[in-house]
Structures are given as structure tokens and as C-alpha cells.
Design brief:
17-stranded mixed sheet, alpha/beta, 549 residues, 30% helix, single chain, disordered N terminus, 15 helices, binds zinc ion, globular, 21 strands
Amino acid sequence: MKKKFPISLMLSSAFALVYLSCSAPNETLYPIAKSDLEPHLITLSSDDFMGRMPFTEGETKTIAYLENEFKSMGLEPGNGDSYFQDVPMVSILTTPAPQMTIQSQKGKMVLEGLKDYVLWTQRTDSLVNFDDVELVFAGFGIVAPEYGWDDYKNIDVKDKIVVIFINDPGFGTEEKSLFKGNTMTYYGRWTYKFEEAARHGALGCLIVHNTIPAGYGFNVIQNSWNATKLYLDQRGKEKYQAAFEGWITLPVANKLFELAGINEREILGKARKPDFQAFPMNLKASSSLEVKVKYDVSKNVVAKISGSKNPEETIIYTAHWDHLGFGKPDETGDSLYNGALDNASGTAALLALAKAFKSEKQPERTVVFLSVTAEEQGLWGSAYYAENPIYPKEKTVANINMDGVNPYGKMKDVSLIGIGQSDLEDLLNEELEKVGRYSAAEPTPSAGYYFRSDHFNFAKIGIPALYIGTGIDHFEKGKEYGKELQDNYTAEYYHKPSDEYDPSRWNLDGAVEDVQLLFNVGKRLANSEVWPGWKQGSEFKAIRDSYMK
Ligand SMILES: [Zn+2]
């Protein structure tokens, strides 16, 4: 790895002063420079930081580095007198029994673990047993007030097992007004479905796998759930967890439908209608799971610049500091997952933003810089923050999240992830227009990227959240070239040991512009009394409205 080189602090702040004195108020003032980003990126992605895995020496070094940088920039601690927020977690290894039996009026059917279904639990009891528990088919398992949709109406699923379809009713229908057509809504995510089933007191939840609406094959589920998983430590909290969660294959689901006397071809069409009624399948399931748990504490890092006029109101920037640590070696024998783009780059951007805000006149609202842990394991650091917010959600104006900056050079566009969600995108578009750039809808809206990084946990508690991705309209070489660069990253570097910082391959000119943009958006919010909201049709609007007047 390359050596860290010195930043020319004197030069950049002198430049900032000159710039400041000759621009009109409210114009772009602090210019973000490559030298604000690159040294942090180099350090955090170096072998020394060991891939920044939670609970390892890599974590110790990373959080110490972040604390030290915030301190030396003169930022205040963000959690009382501490720069840290403890995130208690538990790792759970589930070993399901090799079989599950299904009892029907016609007789018994035996399903094979891993081949026919994958099961796990978030409970921490050493054994989870279920015996002759009734199965209920609950369509897509969705309660969505803004669509007048409730798959759990007129049925009691308490202590029963719900069987549900993946994705949402609009997917694959060409009906753009049925949910969001092929754009995945939050209700299409498997995480949502398990949470909703638990809210209804279900004992278990089984999602019917289907490759196209799921977005991946059953093998992905077999591989990813057959290992230790991290969760938040919920000891002492009255949070109901289902006894088990899991997936069943489509062929197995079709057999169950047949046993229940349901026409499997008709059932999808019925589940896509708002008047769909969930019903008992007259089937009973039995099996068990053995559980091993280990508790540990990781840390979010948090710093702030207090506001001068409305200090209780906050703008929160986020970027996850963690990555995957050591893992399976690649073909070169490299087993260290440096995570340079994912997310040493976003963390470097967070530090660059902190410096930029600190270099300017004190903002009117408080600006918070939150670097969260365990994103890669399930967005846990931000989930913990959302469940235990340091700054009340009613007083949090917005979240702006960064997960991977643009390493390809200047782009005319940015990718707007979750287009149409909140008023924050209007602010972003105004700032883009000022510099002759534009936003484009994310290229794969069916993949649900808006629900797959830390801003999502802010959205879940109603806080408007902005998340952009790298554009594809390359400044000199156009869209095809830009798209090629991104596809190449996904194939060669994403979640691989090769995600390293290499100045010969990286061009930070575009990142500098994107970070500047996010600075401009945050700065406008920090110096106003505006409260951006969720747009009509957003699945998060009702949540925000429930506690804001
Ligand atoms: Zn990431």
C-alpha cells in the first residue's frame, strides 16, 4: 500500500478564505478538494486497517482514527461527552433439524432442509421447537395504508406460520399504478415481510422463493443463511421476534398449495388484488432449530457542529466505516477485503464534509457526522441508532448517506436512488442545475437499492433520507463508457479483496464534485427553517406524519 502523504492544510484554507470573500452570500463557499478525501481513503483502506471488520483490531484502529480526526478538526463529541455510541450485538448460528414435516388431511409430507427450505431464527434460546403449527397463506404479507392494502385483514395469524410471496403485487404486471409496477417498494423486501409477520405475532414466516421477483437464485439463500449472522442484542427489550424465518422453494410451495386444494396458477392473480383474503391452508408443520449465540459490542462514531440559531434541529450525514475484514482468498491469494470504495471512500467523504462545515461560518442548525458500524452484516449500526436515536427524530431534518463515492472521474449526472421519495431530491436537483449537472433515475429500480444502505433505517423511522449513486454520463466519453466502468467495478471489485485504492485506476475528480453537491444540499438545510417531507405515495410518509404536526 502507498504511504500517506501530507495534506496542504494551509493552502486549502487560504484558498477557502479568498473564495469566501469574493462570493455572494448563500453561494457555494467551501471548495472540497481531492486532498480532503484521498489521505483518509488511503489510510482507511490500507492493509493496516485489516478490512475494518467489527469486533476486530481493524475496528479498534478505525474508530480511533475517526475519533482523532474529528477531534483534531475541532468537532464536538456527538454523544454527550463521547465520540462513540455502543452498539450491542449478538451473533447467532442456527442449525436447523434436517427435516420439516407437513401434515395434511391426505397424509404426511417430509421436506429436506437446505434443499427444499432454509430456516433460521433471531431468538437466542438454545432450542426452538415447533410442533403441528398451522400454516396460513397471506398473499404478499403487506400492510400498506397508502395503497389501501392489508393482507392481514380479517385473519388471526398469532402463533401460526405465514406463507407469503416475495416482492410486491405490482412486480411483473406492467401495471405502473399497482404499487410501483416493476420498481420495488419497501414492501417487496424480504426484511419487511419478516418484520410485518412478527408485528402480527406470527410464530414463523416462510417466503416462497421465485428467482425473477427475488432477484437471485435459491442457491444465494442456501449460501448466505447457512452461516453465523449478526443481529442487535435485544436482551431486556420487549421486542417480539418470530420463532423462525425462512424461505421455501417454488416447487415445494406449489406442492403445499396442491395439498391445500389451491390452484397454484390462480393464487398469484388473487394475491395481486386488494380484496385478497388470507386463509388457513389446513396444513400443519413441525421441526426444530438449535441455536448458538455470542454477544459483543461494536461502536458507531459520532461528532457534531452545534447550530447557532436552532441547535436542537439536526442534519445527519452518515457513512458506514465497516467492511468485511479477512475472508475467502481470491485467485491471487489475497484474503484481505480492503473495502476502498465500500466504504473507506464514503467515510473519507464524511471527514471531508466535517472539515468543510468546520471551515465555514457556524451553521444555524446542528450538523451531525455519524459513521456507523456493521452495515455489511445487515445495516445494524444505523438500525441501532434509529432504535436509540441520540437526536430525536422529530427534530431531525434530514439524513444524507454516502456508500461508495465516484471513482471514475467527472460525470454529468448522479444516480438518484429511490426517485420520487422525498423533497430532498428537489433540493439536490436545484444544486445540480446550478453547476450544469443533472440527476437520473437509478438504472435498476427493481433491485430496491433505496432499502439497502444506512439511510433506509432513517427512512424507516420517518426521517427524510437522501442517497445518491455514481452517475453514468461520463463528462468526456458519455453514457456507454460510464456504464461499462460501473459494470466492470461490480464484476471485478465489488465485495472482493481487489477493492483497493489504486491512484492509477481511480480518478477522484467526480467524487470531489459529488461530495461538494452533498455539502451544498446539507448546508442549505443547515441554514434554513425548511422541513423537507416525503412525497405523496412514499411508503414512509405516514410514519413521518404520525409524529410531526
Ligand atoms: Zn457499503
